Amino acid sequence: FEGGDTCEYLLSSGRFLGEKVWQPHSCMMHKYKNSEAKNCLIDKHVVFIGDSRIRQLFYSFIKLINPQVKEEGIKHGNIPFEDKSASIKVDFLWYPEVNGSMRQRIKSWTEGSVAKPHIIVVGAATWSIKIHNGSNEALAQYKINITSIAPLLEKLAISSDVYWVLQDPVYEDMLSESRKMITNEKIDAYNEAAVRILNSSSRNSKAKVKVFSVSKLIAQETIMKSADGLHLPESSRDTNAMILMNVYCNKIMKPIDGSCCQPQPPLTLIQKIAFCFFTLSIIGYLIISLIHRNNYRKNKSCTDLESGEEKKPAISTPHVSTLEMLLHCFCKLGLIMTYFYLCDRANLFMKENKFYTHSSFFIPIAYILVLGVFYTENTKETKVLNREQTDEWKGWMQLVILIYHISGASTFLPVYMHIRVLVAAYLFQTGYGHFSYFWIKGDFGVYRVCQVLFRLNFLVVVLCIVMDRPYQFYYFVPLVTVWFMIIYATLAVWPQIVQKKANGNCLWHFGLLLKLICLLTCIYFLSYSQGAFEKIFSFWPLSKCFELNGNVYEWWFRWKLDRYVVFHGMLFAFIYLALQKRQMISEGKGDPLFSNRVSNALLFISIVSFLTYSIWASSCKNKTECNELHPSVSVVQILAFILIRNIPGYVRSVYSSFFAWFGKISLELFICQYHIWLAADTKGILVLIPGYPMFNVLVSTFIFVCVAHEISQITNDLAQIVVPKDNSTLLKRLLCIAGFFSGLHFFSAMQDQSRH
Questions:
Q1: Fewer Cβ atoms within 10 Å of its own Cβ: the N or the C terminal residue of the chain?
Q2: Where is the Cas1p 10 TM acyl transferase domain (predicted)?
């Protein structure tokens, strides 16, 4: 289902999510702040013409510019508003009836060199119904008057945005005696006349008067909360004002989470080159496949005409060449990237805002928990944090994070704080896993570094090119990449201390602890010295990677939020491996990790610590204050979980294959969700099948998971080709990669220059 004309949908259709959140059909509405509204309307003149209902809309609109405004103007008169700091003028003109006076005012803007308003919002009818007691003659006169005004509005619409606001329904039971003649039947007749005349008058689509009919739908849901049965409650008119702001400002401000009325962004130079590359890859793969198919047919076994028996083929299936594998990978990747682009850059599919409810988060959590427990199997090994267990841990955490994102649960602070712990746990595993590898293997070769960097960054680099986003936008990958390099530098710098060397002399353990203390000191210094941190990452070429919106503040914030947890992971790995080497822990199948008394005591402390953190996180009042404490205390719940999961032998001996499967593609799931499960760069939800929310989630999730799995396979295949074990070949590949990034930088500079 196509997204269609999102401007038309924004003005005419939608529904409420909950009681106050308005969801336009097919697109996302941005919530404008005062500063954004001022930037959009700078040097603009806006005019509202009509009755008391239009006056209400006028006040809601100017409150988006200045929230301190009070509704103290003359009720039946003109009301001016001016924001001198941004040179914005907004006027309300009192014309309660569509008559000659209104026509004369509108006509004055069409004559000569008179400055025309940039936005004109017009609407009136209830006064005509009231004054003429709902007579048919008044309706006939209304039709004549609006017919005479329509060409003038159309003429203004050539250079200005003109909106005709249809009349909202009334709550007849609450109307005063003097307004009893204003019935919904009469209002419908007036609205029908206005729509018919305005639509028939618009011959030129560029000069079309936009009919603001969405207010009717909003009023139908909220008019019963009206104070007098005629005027909308404040929340409803605020929604109407926000819709007006989105209609006009989205194409100017281009907010990420405001897809309504935004034109499709033009293809950049780099995107065009990428498109050509993937197209050539697909053509190349098809040509090679056809050649191989023809060769196979020539060598295929044929029937012996004399004996009637079938001969076996003379040669075996040909070996797949490196070129063919490369083209095959890029062919699949090209098709996948096309889907990415269509989902989140083209206006092909619908997008909707998120709306959080407790049920939308906790019910899917309970569902996947049941599935995870159902697929329980025995582990191949029973060591602490063995491969199956870490995959399981990554898997269930990733599923919880995905549900958190699609449900919009970040607005609920207790859930947000627990999700912060899950992100910290990923980084804890980064510290634990890479430290363990370097400590045990002692392999500090270039091959290992390149393999890890390629697997972490390949998908993100491709998305930066195809989706025209900076590297720092996918913040988690830069985070784990930098921490990997920090771990590598800490252990690889002289003196290189590894387990084999330390076993010969215990003093080396103190040397390693000294390295870790130096690392902790550097982390502490950078976390409290924003200036030093920003200077380091503002140098070229680091600035190209870590800047977002022209500065590295976002990168500093993300790094600072979990600054100690990687160190905690490294320290835990060091202590655990030391205890394991001295056989101070028991890792046999079914055996508790320590003696029964120690195991029970540690288990009790872990459960209490786990629950204590959850209670503290649930009692958080302020996100900023809790984020300040989070780096120091998140390790409490992480260590508590590890001990609870590993101390009892029977728990350590099993794992969930369901969660582990997702854990193997957790990085791809985390990155792919940005564009093909969520929408508008995670701000909204992708809608493939409108009108059926559950079915839509099922279909989009199935495609999303399949794509993530396929990308994981492509990354693994390409890693073997791009990062070979042979050092001389690897050096040549690194030179090619350096050339690729140099070319990318060159085209990026050209692109930026053309934009400016």
A1: C
A2: 253-734
pLDDT tens readout for residues 715-748: 999 999 999 999 999 999 999 999 999 999 999 8
Q: Which amino acid is at 158?
A: I
> Residue 647: in which H helix or E strand, if any?
none
CA distance 683 to 411: 13
b/e map 584-609, b = 16+ CB within 10 Å: ebebeeebbbbeeeebeebbeebeeb
* pLDDT reported for residue 680: 87
Sign of CA dihedral 143, 147, 149, 154: positive
Report the Cα 622 to chain-centroid distance in Å: 23
Asked if residue 306 has pLDDT above 90, the reply is: no
- Residue 742's φ and ψ, nearest 5 degrees, are -65, -45
- Residue 748 sits at φ, ψ, to 5 deg, of -65, -40
Map residue 223 onto helix, strand or coil. Answer: helix
CA 591 – CA 649 distance, rounded (Å): 4
* Residue 697 structure tokens: 């989630």
Which residues are CB-contacts of 577 (< 8 A; sequence separation ≥ 6)? 436, 439, 440, 499
Cα first-last separation, the chain: 36
DSSP letter for 599, please: H
Q: Give the β-pairing of 654-656 and 161-165.
A: unpaired
- Is the pLDDT at 201 greater than 70? The verdict is no
- Residue type at position 287: I
Contacts of 721 (CB under 8 A, 6+ apart): 322, 325, 326
Task: Give the helix/strand (H/E) hosting 163.
Answer: strand 161-165
Taken as a whole, the chain contains a residue count of 756
| pLDDT in the model for residue 305 | 39
Quick one: CA torsion of 336, 341, 344, 345, rounded to 10 degrees? 180
Higher per-residue confidence, 18 vs 343: 343
Active site residues: 52, 228, 231
Whether residue 316 has pLDDT greater than 70: no
In the DSSP assignment, the letter for residue 171 is -
207-221, 304-318, 573-587, 598-612: lowest mean pLDDT where?
304-318
pTM: 0.91
Contacts of 378 (CB under 8 A, 6+ apart): 653, 654
**What kind and span of H or E run contains 127?**
helix 126-131
Contacts (Cβ under 8 Å, ≥6 apart) of 631: 527, 560, 561, 562, 563, 564, 565
The two three-digit tokens of residue 425, written as one number: 């746990």
Q: What is the DSSP letter of 160?
A: S
**Token couple for 681:** 């760069």
- What's the rounded Cα separation, in Å, for the pair 353 and 22? 9
Judge whether residue 205 has pLDDT over 90. no
Residues 483, 559 contacting (CB under 8 angstroms): no
Does the pLDDT at position 313 exceed 60? no
Sign of CA dihedral 47, 49, 51, 57: negative
Q: Could you give the dihedral angle defined by the CA atoms of residues 334, 339, 342 and 343, in that order, rounded to the nearest 10 degrees?
A: -140
**The domain made up of 11-253 is a member of CATH 3.40.50.720:** no
Instruction: Return the amino acid letter for 310.
Output: E
Residue 363 host element (H or E): helix 358-374
Contact 22, 13 (CB under 8 A): no
Residue 83 bridge partners (DSSP)? 88
Q: What is the pLDDT of residue 318?
A: 52
The Cα–Cα gap between 708 and 702 comes to 10
CA pair distance 469, 463, nearest whole angstrom? 7
